[in-house]
Write a structure and sequence with these properties.
- This protein is α/β, with parallel strands linked by helices and 183 residues long.
- The protein has one domain: Rossmann fold, CATH 3.40.50.
- Helix content is 35%, strand content 22%.
- A 6-stranded mixed beta sheet has the order 1-5-8-4-2-3, sandwiched between helices. The chain has a two-stranded antiparallel ribbon with strand order 6-7.
- A hairpin with a 2-residue loop joins strand 6 and strand 7.
- Helix 1 packs across helix 6.
Protein backbone atom coordinates (compact mmCIF):
# COMPACT_ATOMS: atom_id res chain seq x y z
CA UNK A 1 0.00 0.00 0.00
CA UNK A 2 1.20 3.49 -0.75
CA UNK A 3 1.07 6.33 1.74
CA UNK A 4 -1.79 6.34 4.22
CA UNK A 5 -4.54 8.57 2.91
CA UNK A 6 -7.40 9.67 5.12
CA UNK A 7 -10.52 11.82 4.86
CA UNK A 8 -13.10 12.47 7.56
CA UNK A 9 -16.38 14.29 6.83
CA UNK A 10 -19.70 15.02 8.50
CA UNK A 11 -22.68 13.91 6.39
CA UNK A 12 -24.06 17.44 6.09
CA UNK A 13 -20.85 18.98 4.72
CA UNK A 14 -21.02 20.59 1.31
CA UNK A 15 -19.57 18.60 -1.61
CA UNK A 16 -18.96 15.54 0.57
CA UNK A 17 -19.35 13.05 -2.29
CA UNK A 18 -16.86 14.95 -4.47
CA UNK A 19 -14.28 15.02 -1.66
CA UNK A 20 -14.56 11.27 -1.13
CA UNK A 21 -14.41 10.64 -4.90
CA UNK A 22 -11.17 12.61 -5.21
CA UNK A 23 -9.51 10.59 -2.48
CA UNK A 24 -10.87 7.26 -3.70
CA UNK A 25 -9.57 7.90 -7.22
CA UNK A 26 -6.20 8.87 -5.75
CA UNK A 27 -5.82 5.62 -3.79
CA UNK A 28 -7.40 3.16 -6.26
CA UNK A 29 -5.25 0.63 -8.02
CA UNK A 30 -6.79 1.05 -11.47
CA UNK A 31 -5.42 -2.16 -12.91
CA UNK A 32 -7.27 -4.20 -10.30
CA UNK A 33 -10.89 -5.25 -10.23
CA UNK A 34 -12.75 -3.65 -7.34
CA UNK A 35 -14.78 -5.72 -4.88
CA UNK A 36 -16.88 -4.17 -2.10
CA UNK A 37 -17.53 -5.88 1.24
CA UNK A 38 -20.32 -4.34 3.33
CA UNK A 39 -19.94 -5.60 6.88
CA UNK A 40 -22.89 -5.73 9.27
CA UNK A 41 -25.96 -7.76 10.10
CA UNK A 42 -29.28 -6.02 10.76
CA UNK A 43 -30.75 -9.18 12.26
CA UNK A 44 -28.05 -9.63 14.89
CA UNK A 45 -27.47 -6.12 16.16
CA UNK A 46 -29.41 -3.64 14.05
CA UNK A 47 -26.25 -2.87 12.10
CA UNK A 48 -27.95 -2.01 8.83
CA UNK A 49 -25.72 0.76 7.41
CA UNK A 50 -23.23 -1.31 5.40
CA UNK A 51 -25.81 -3.91 4.28
CA UNK A 52 -27.96 -0.99 3.07
CA UNK A 53 -25.02 0.30 0.98
CA UNK A 54 -24.56 -3.21 -0.45
CA UNK A 55 -28.26 -3.49 -1.24
CA UNK A 56 -28.30 -0.11 -3.01
CA UNK A 57 -25.31 -1.18 -5.14
CA UNK A 58 -26.85 -4.55 -6.04
CA UNK A 59 -30.12 -2.85 -7.01
CA UNK A 60 -28.05 -0.91 -9.57
CA UNK A 61 -26.65 -4.16 -11.03
CA UNK A 62 -23.25 -3.91 -9.40
CA UNK A 63 -22.39 -7.57 -8.91
CA UNK A 64 -19.00 -7.50 -7.20
CA UNK A 65 -20.56 -6.60 -3.84
CA UNK A 66 -20.77 -8.80 -0.76
CA UNK A 67 -23.01 -7.94 2.18
CA UNK A 68 -26.62 -6.90 1.66
CA UNK A 69 -29.72 -6.81 3.81
CA UNK A 70 -30.76 -10.17 2.34
CA UNK A 71 -27.27 -11.75 2.50
CA UNK A 72 -25.28 -10.00 5.25
CA UNK A 73 -21.58 -10.36 5.96
CA UNK A 74 -20.76 -10.32 9.66
CA UNK A 75 -18.31 -11.65 12.24
CA UNK A 76 -19.68 -15.18 11.76
CA UNK A 77 -19.08 -15.53 8.01
CA UNK A 78 -16.53 -12.82 7.15
CA UNK A 79 -13.56 -15.20 7.01
CA UNK A 80 -15.37 -17.51 4.59
CA UNK A 81 -16.55 -14.62 2.37
CA UNK A 82 -13.10 -12.99 2.36
CA UNK A 83 -11.46 -16.30 1.36
CA UNK A 84 -14.06 -16.72 -1.39
CA UNK A 85 -13.23 -13.27 -2.79
CA UNK A 86 -9.47 -13.85 -2.68
CA UNK A 87 -9.90 -17.23 -4.43
CA UNK A 88 -12.37 -16.06 -7.10
CA UNK A 89 -10.94 -12.69 -8.14
CA UNK A 90 -7.49 -12.09 -9.58
CA UNK A 91 -5.77 -9.90 -6.97
CA UNK A 92 -8.78 -7.61 -6.38
CA UNK A 93 -8.78 -4.16 -4.80
CA UNK A 94 -11.15 -4.58 -1.87
CA UNK A 95 -13.10 -1.71 -0.34
CA UNK A 96 -14.75 -2.46 3.00
CA UNK A 97 -17.72 -0.60 4.45
CA UNK A 98 -18.73 -0.73 8.10
CA UNK A 99 -19.54 1.18 11.25
CA UNK A 100 -17.54 1.68 14.40
CA UNK A 101 -18.04 3.21 17.78
CA UNK A 102 -15.37 5.42 19.35
CA UNK A 103 -13.42 3.95 22.22
CA UNK A 104 -13.58 7.31 23.95
CA UNK A 105 -17.27 7.90 24.62
CA UNK A 106 -16.62 11.61 25.09
CA UNK A 107 -15.82 11.82 21.38
CA UNK A 108 -19.00 13.26 19.91
CA UNK A 109 -18.08 12.97 16.23
CA UNK A 110 -20.46 11.26 13.89
CA UNK A 111 -18.48 11.12 10.70
CA UNK A 112 -17.70 9.13 7.58
CA UNK A 113 -14.05 8.18 7.25
CA UNK A 114 -12.34 6.91 4.11
CA UNK A 115 -8.91 5.42 4.74
CA UNK A 116 -6.32 3.82 2.53
CA UNK A 117 -6.06 0.90 4.92
CA UNK A 118 -8.02 -2.25 5.82
CA UNK A 119 -11.14 -2.40 7.95
CA UNK A 120 -10.47 -4.29 11.14
CA UNK A 121 -13.17 -6.60 12.47
CA UNK A 122 -13.33 -8.88 15.47
CA UNK A 123 -14.61 -12.15 14.04
CA UNK A 124 -15.37 -15.50 15.64
CA UNK A 125 -11.85 -16.57 14.63
CA UNK A 126 -10.04 -13.47 15.94
CA UNK A 127 -9.17 -10.05 14.53
CA UNK A 128 -9.16 -9.77 10.75
CA UNK A 129 -7.99 -6.94 8.53
CA UNK A 130 -10.27 -6.80 5.52
CA UNK A 131 -9.46 -5.11 2.25
CA UNK A 132 -7.23 -2.37 0.90
CA UNK A 133 -9.37 0.68 1.69
CA UNK A 134 -12.26 1.24 4.03
CA UNK A 135 -15.26 3.44 4.57
CA UNK A 136 -16.09 3.63 8.26
CA UNK A 137 -18.95 5.51 9.82
CA UNK A 138 -18.26 6.53 13.40
CA UNK A 139 -21.30 6.92 15.61
CA UNK A 140 -21.19 8.32 19.10
CA UNK A 141 -23.35 6.11 21.28
CA UNK A 142 -23.14 6.51 25.02
CA UNK A 143 -23.89 2.87 25.83
CA UNK A 144 -21.63 -0.13 25.98
CA UNK A 145 -21.03 -0.55 22.26
CA UNK A 146 -20.88 -4.33 22.51
CA UNK A 147 -24.57 -4.45 23.36
CA UNK A 148 -25.87 -1.64 21.17
CA UNK A 149 -28.57 -2.02 18.55
CA UNK A 150 -27.41 0.73 16.20
CA UNK A 151 -30.72 0.93 14.35
CA UNK A 152 -32.59 1.42 17.61
CA UNK A 153 -30.14 4.02 18.98
CA UNK A 154 -29.52 6.06 15.84
CA UNK A 155 -32.73 5.80 13.85
CA UNK A 156 -33.18 4.81 10.25
CA UNK A 157 -33.10 8.41 8.96
CA UNK A 158 -29.53 9.06 10.08
CA UNK A 159 -28.32 5.65 8.94
CA UNK A 160 -30.00 6.15 5.55
CA UNK A 161 -28.25 9.53 5.02
CA UNK A 162 -24.81 8.10 5.75
CA UNK A 163 -25.37 4.97 3.66
CA UNK A 164 -26.64 6.98 0.69
CA UNK A 165 -23.46 9.09 0.63
CA UNK A 166 -21.20 6.02 0.60
CA UNK A 167 -23.43 4.36 -2.00
CA UNK A 168 -23.22 7.37 -4.34
CA UNK A 169 -19.42 7.47 -4.17
CA UNK A 170 -19.01 3.72 -4.73
CA UNK A 171 -21.64 3.61 -7.45
CA UNK A 172 -19.98 6.43 -9.37
CA UNK A 173 -16.59 4.73 -9.20
CA UNK A 174 -17.86 1.24 -10.00
CA UNK A 175 -20.39 2.11 -12.68
CA UNK A 176 -18.97 5.12 -14.50
CA UNK A 177 -15.40 3.90 -14.62
CA UNK A 178 -16.21 0.43 -15.95
CA UNK A 179 -15.13 -1.36 -12.80
CA UNK A 180 -18.32 -3.40 -12.85
CA UNK A 181 -17.91 -7.15 -13.11
CA UNK A 182 -20.81 -7.99 -15.43
CA UNK A 183 -22.31 -11.40 -14.86
Amino acid sequence: MDSKEYLEKYYYEKDIEEEFLKLLYKILKREKEIVVICIGNPLLDGNILAPLVGTFLCEQNIYNVYGTIKNPVDKNNIKEIYSHILNNYNNPYIISVGIMFPLDFHDEREVIILKNEPYEILSTSGNLKIGDASFKVVFDIEDNYYNVNSLEKLGLGKIYKYSKIIFKVLYYVLHNQNYVNKK
